[in-house]
Amino acid sequence: MDPEQQEPTARRWTRGRRAAVAVGTVAGLTVASVVLAGLTATTTSPVPQPVDGGELVLTLDDVGTGFSTAVTDLAPGDVVLRHVRLDSTGSLDGADLTLTVTSSGDAALVTDGASTRALTLAVNGCDVAWDAGTGTCAGTASTLLAATTVGLLTTPVALVDELLAGASLHLQLVLALPDQDETTVDGAPPAETVQGATVALTYGFTMVQRDPLTTTG
Amino acid sequence: MAPRRRPPRRAHRRPAGSPALRRAADALLLLSVGLLAPLSGGAVTARSTVVLDLSSGSWAAVAVPAGAAPTTGPLALPWSQSGSSADAIVDVVATGTLALSGVRLRLDADGPDPVTAVTVTACLGGTWEGPDCAGTTAPVGDLTGTAVLEVALDPSERIALRAETRRPVANRTTFVLRVEVARTDVRGAPEGGD
User: Fold this and answer.
1) Pick the CATH number of A58-181+195-209 from 3.90.1480, 2.60.120, 2.40.170, 2.40.10
2) What is the tens place of the pLDDT at every residue in B46-66?
3) Out of B51, B56, B61, closest to residue A194 by CB
4) What is the pTM (predicted TM-score) of this model?
5) Maximal C-alpha separation, chain B
6) Which CATH number fits domain B61-185: 2.40.128, 3.30.420, 3.10.350, 2.60.40?
7) Which of A98, B43, B153, B159 could form a disulfide with A156 if both were Cys (CB 3.0 to 4.6 A apart)?
């Protein structure tokens, strides 16, 4: 055979052998991976292992009047008690429950000026349901938030460290308009007045999931 | 030869393999999400919001001519001269939203004549017809200073008053009746549950 013809033939043979080896390798690996995959599947999923993402759910319900009815004709010195229940209805435990209060309306009711005139809010807890009719706690009451001017509650304030899944938090919200003397003369209130003011208070209760867990088994 | 187009990327591609293998892969995917989300700081939060509307009340009262609609501002007493005495019939109307336990009356003179003894009498449950009260009279007091009308007034309620002086009232002097309502004239501040 012509050596000049043999050389290409040898190169073709070599390339063909290399290709065959490569194909064989790929085929072998494929078969191996399928076998391994089959083995893995066989060993891990005769009974599928369910993994559910947990839920973090916070619901709010009125106790008595709660937030269902507006507060009207508040006079200095008045105290309004409203009761609500927060329920952690998800499957995850909650933590770091905070409260924010934002408002829209007349600033006179929200922000103190030269004197303490604006609304204050305090939050009390009770380990059993509050008696909304009397505002009393038949169990153990605790102060979760001391009286604070409403305008200062736009940043979150901590109420409780944790609220376990399925647990409830019984809250009493104490809204008060500080006592003060204003004298109207011939139907006109003083320049700085809390009279006839209106505000919408938006209460936001927020909690985060409990700390992440690493479990083994 | 036309350029090859990259196939559109799919948001999520199901893994190939047997159903059992796919379930295992899905479980691993969920497990990974569950493990990685907290580690990456993406903590889950739950939030509940509610709005409470709130309004404050007002306390105010004005003096107006008998039967007139309330307006803001002091009232110049509409004296009616009769011989050596004079009288003026006015109403005090509660114009705020809160019930009052009373109001404070003050009489100022704008002119050369001093405020002399002016006696005020209320007509409860009726109106004045000249010197006659169709209801029950109740003395309020002298207006040489500030007199307190201790009569409960609901919002928009009015009470008829008769001011009387035993001396002639000169036209050159205006007697202005002012009505003041302090916080202490408003109902008490209750505290209790809802």
Assistant:
1) 2.60.120
2) 999 999 999 999 999 999 999
3) B56
4) 0.72
5) 123
6) 2.60.40
7) A98
